[in-house]
Every structure is written in structure tokens, then in C-alpha cells.
Specification:
The protein is α/β, with parallel strands linked by helices. 41% of the residues lie in helices and 16% in strands. It has a seven-stranded mixed sheet with strand order 3-2-1-4-5-7-6, sandwiched between helices. It is globular and about 60 Å long. The relative contact order is 0.15.
Length: 237
């Protein structure tokens, strides 16, 4: 639903600051926002090179995106642990709607690994730990599933039965959504996670994007500082 298109300026900024066109997506799952975000990045920057990774790679989803977007999208068949990314995976690291799955200790390891290797990293979450968000989720999820289920492919009888007759899918989606929102880090908590990883040659920025349409997006970005730029500059957006 294009919720992550507003992150385009931040990703562009980090790629340019890092002097690379390579992106290493961590915890890629079923490829997240890349079907729309990658073409938008290419239009803004020229060709970018995207590598999809996951601890448990979803090969069918990865292959579909590669077929759709062409030779500038790749994936790794071996497992990649986001807390310990191999040195040879060079590029800006991205995590979309996945960072909340990590408790503080492994979350710090993900950020610390990027910092120690001086690799740029971009964390984006459209989930948000606010009661208004949590309480509005059940009716919105029910409406969304009711409207979109008939168009989902492949059409299966089991999908309709478990959505409309026996609401297993709605219950699972609502539960997952509530827990995801409650686990999402606030900007000040993200700042605390990077407290031990500060250096004059590396910049951290945290904040939230508030698009005119779509959900609030909480972000944390880290990248190499330009010459003479101080790490103390840590704007909140």
C-alpha cells in the first residue's frame, strides 16, 4: 500500500552520504516494500543494486521480485543473521517493519554491528506504540481483510472459510498487529539503543515521518559522517 514511499528521501540521503548504490535488505521476509520502493529509488538515483536476505529465506517471494524488477535485484540463499552480517555484504542495510521483533539486546547487536563495520543502516517501522493505534487496529484489520480477501491470489476455498466463516485469519492478523505495535520502539528508545555507538565519523538520526496520507513512520538511520561533521549533530525529525 505504498506506506514506505515517504522514506525515499532518507534512503537517498544515506546512499549518497555513504557513496554507494548498494542496498542490503535484512529480514526481507516476503520482500516488504521493495516492489514499489526500488523503482522509485532507481528513478531518483539511477540504478541501485538490491540484495535480499533473511535468516529463513523466502525463496519463492525473492524469485518473484527478481523476475519482476530484473538483474539489479539479487538474493542470498544462505541464512543471514541480522545481528552479524557477513563482511562481504557491502551496502546500506535496511530493515522494514522487522526491528520490533528484536528485544533490546539483539537490537543493539544489529546496530552495533553496522557501527563497527561503518556500514550505513536504515530502520523503518510503520507500527507505533500508541493506544489510539492499537485500539483502532481491530476494526481496520477486519475491514481490510473483508475488502481484499476476494482479490488475493491464489484463490482458495480454505482462505475464504478461514476468513469469513471461521475467522482464524482475522484473529491472527489482529493479534499480530497488536503485539507488533506494542513492541515497536519509540524514537527516544532508539536513541538509547545507539548510546554506546557514538563516534565523530558516524552519524545517528532518529525521528518520525508524518505523511499526509498513511501511517506515522518511526525511523533510525546511521551513516558515515562527512569530513569535519560531528556526531553530536543528531537531529530529531
Amino acid at each position: 500500500m505504498s506506506v514506505y514511499l515517504p522514506t525515499l528521501p532518507l534512503i537517498t540521503k544515506v546512499l549518497q552520504a555513504q557513496g554507494t548504490n548498494k542496498i542490503v535488505d535484512l529480514c526481507s521476509g516476503a520482500t516488504g516494500p521493495w516492489a514499489e520502493l526500488k523503482p522509485a529509488l532507481d528513478e531518483s538515483l539511477g540504478s541501485t543494486n538490491l540484495t535480499l536476505t533473511d535468516k529463513h529465506p523466502n525463496f519463492p517471494a525473492f524469485e518473484r521480485l527478481c523476475d519482476r524488477l530484473g538483474t539489479t535485484v539479487h538474493f542470498l540463499s544462505e541464512s543471514v543473521d541480522a545481528t552479524e552480517v557477513p563482511d562481504e555484504l557491502d551496502g546500506v542495510r535496511t530493515l522494514f517493519t522487522s526491528f520490533h521483533h528484536f528485544s533490546p539486546l539483539p537490537a543493539k547487536r544489529i546496530l552495533g554491528d553496522a557501527f563497527r563495520q561503518r556500514s550505513a543502516i536504515c530502520v523503518f517501522e510503520f507500527t507505533e506504540r500508541r493506544w489510539t493505534t492499537v485500539l483502532s487496529l481491530p476494526p481496520l484489520a477486519l475491514l481490510f481483510l473483508a475488502l481484499t480477501t476476494p482479490s488475493l491470489r491464489p484463490r482458495r476455498l480454505s482462505r475464504f472459510l478461514l476468513t469469513y466463516a471461521l475467522p482464524v485469519v482475522p484473529c491472527a492478523v489482529i493479534w499480530d498487529g497488536i503485539v507488533s505495535n506494542l513492541r515497536t520502539y519509540q524514537p527516544e528508545e532508539l536513541e538509547e539503543l545507539v548510546h554506546d555507538y557514538r563516534s565523530p565519523d558516524y552519524v545517528w538520526e532518529t525521528g518520525q515521518l508524518h505523511p499526509d496520507t498513511g501511517p506515522t513512520i518511526t525511523y533510525l538511520i546511521g551513516y558515515r559522517a562527512a569530513t569535519g561533521r560531528s556526531q553530536e549533530a543528531n537531529p530529531r525529525r
